[in-house]
Task: structure prediction
Amino acid sequence: MKNFVIEYLNENEFRKKERAIKKYNMLAYKKLLFDYYPSLREGNLLGVMVSNNPEEGISTYELKLPTDVMFNKVHGDIILHYSVYDKERIVMLDNITPDDILMEGHQKELTTYKGVMVSKSHAEKDIFKINLLNMLDK
Result:
């Protein structure tokens, strides 16, 4: 069986987001690099199928990456968006979301508050969420 080839919709932007994940969420980065990419190359499509176009042979998937609970509650899930071209045997890596925190994390050093990344663009909102979630846990 022939393996799939991994390509990028926009490699520069995608690599920047990968580096931000490596810097701020090592668990998600390790799973992505050592588990998910090899699995995709072998043709094991992971995640949830979002759309399917059988005439063109294109399927779109979303794969949730593992994060800690507090990051998830403050910033949301880290999701890998990719498309599969069956005829060409290509996995096209489209995007990693949430865009705002990952691109901001790549461009400048983010601060942390009580062990959670805080965005510079909406720091007050993130700190409020962290404090609220900590109060609810007590």
Q: What stands out?
A: The chain has a mean pLDDT of 84. The chain is about 45% helix and 30% strand.
